[in-house]
Amino acid sequence: MSGGDWMVGFLPAALVALMLVGGWAPSAALAGELEMGRVGPVVPFYATPTQADLCGTPVPLDRQDVWERFDREFTIVVYSHAQVYLWLKRLERYGPWMQQQLKQSGLPQDLLYLAVAESDLQHMARSPANAAGIWQFIPGTGSRYGLKTGSQMDERYDFDKATQGALQYLSDLHRMFQNWPLAIAAYNCGENRVKQELAIQGVSDYYSLDLPNETERYVPRILAIKTVLANPERYGYYLPKDAGYPMHDLDRVQASLPGPMPMSRVADACTMTLSDFRVKNPAYLQNEVPAGEHIFRVPKGSGERVSRSLRQLAAECRTVGFVTEAPEVGKAAAPAAVKVASKAASKANPKAAPKARVHKVEKGDTLSKIGRLYEVSVAELKHWNNLKSETVKPGQVLKVSSH
């Protein structure tokens, strides 16, 4: 069948689908032209709703200015086909758990769409303003709600902790403003900015406030996302069963690490590949898991076994120094763990204990390389020399022994 024949045969079926699913119907004349193949396909028109609510609060769409703000966002969203389908797929993974958390917190289910607007439900999302994670916390606000940020870990990427922090923040904002549109606006531009503008402008509702352009678009965009995702088939979207992304069915295991460990060793103890461990535990930014208390997400049903493995790894860490840097090009990789010589071992075999007590850093030296030379760990070298990072400079003199 030629391309033209295919198009003529296809168009009636496509039109029927649009009429049934999208509620769109061409004029009689246009339908005839389409049937004859004289014009190309027509993009269906979806009317912007004239009534809506967000978090149980009616939106004043009878005001022309408000309706036009909403119309802009709705038009952008409803025709963003690829993005809408990605949202629908990600909602299959994250939506049920987030809805459960909202219910337990006594918060409106519509706040799920705030997370969609913030990050497209991508847990590793990061903005130019340094907002991060699925709820897009900036460092200061994240810290206020218990999310630690640093070079090794950033809990804004921790799905569980970030969600709890965001829900508490939203609850606090609603308590502050007694109004969901204002609370949502404050989530975007900050509560202090909203308070200041309310006082200066002498108005009491979000839709009458003069706010930064991003914030003026923020609430209508969330409303537009809700309108389409809450009733996708009405707007021509149909996600077949099992086409979405499956939920991460996981156990959560608590572990206490006495020292830093290579992430590859921790992942192995968690019965996961390094890649999968990073995906399920995205708060860890480096190849090393720092010392301290941790909750790891591990495959469902493996919790008890993983807990035992992690206890064994922690016990090993008390007597073993872990090398976490990659080997230099052209040199053999160091073993994952290098045993630290004990006093008893030194007495039994004096040659096993390095004679040197200090090392002068030369060009090309790294802590990992120096540690392998003297059979000590990077963590020990940092401790003995009060180093906050693993950077060393030529000419620097380092202790390579506790003596």
Explain what you see.
This protein is mainly alpha-helical and 403 residues long. The chain folds into four domains: 3-35, no CATH class; 85-235, Lysozyme, CATH 1.10.530.10; 250-318; 337-399, LysM domain (Membrane-bound Lytic Murein Transglycosylase D, Chain A, Roll), CATH 3.10.350.10. 47% of the residues lie in helices and 9% in strands. The chain is built from 16 helices and ten strands. The longest helix is centred in the N-terminal third of the chain and has 24 residues, at 81-104. It is elongated, with a radius of gyration of 29 Å.
Strand fraction equals 5-15%
Annotation, overall tally of beta strands: 10
Mass-distribution shape: elongated
> How does the helix and strand content classify structurally?
mainly alpha
Helix count, DSSP H or I runs of 4 or more residues: 16
Radius of gyration: 29 Å
Q: So, CATH architecture of the largest domain?
A: Orthogonal Bundle
Helix content: 40-55%
Largest sheet, spatial ordering of strands: 1-2
Examine the coordinates and then state which fold CATH places here, giving the name of the CATH topology of the largest domain: Lysozyme
Total discrete domains: 4
The rounded distance between the terminal residues' Cα atoms is 86 Å
| Chain-averaged pLDDT | 84
Largest sheet: 2 strands, antiparallel
Low-confidence stretches: 1-22, 323-356
Helix-strand sequence: HHEEHHHHHHHHEEHHEEHEEHEHHE
CATH structural class of the largest domain: Mainly Alpha
What would the keywords be for this entry?
mainly alpha; about 400 residues; elongated; 4 domains; Lysozyme; two-stranded antiparallel ribbon
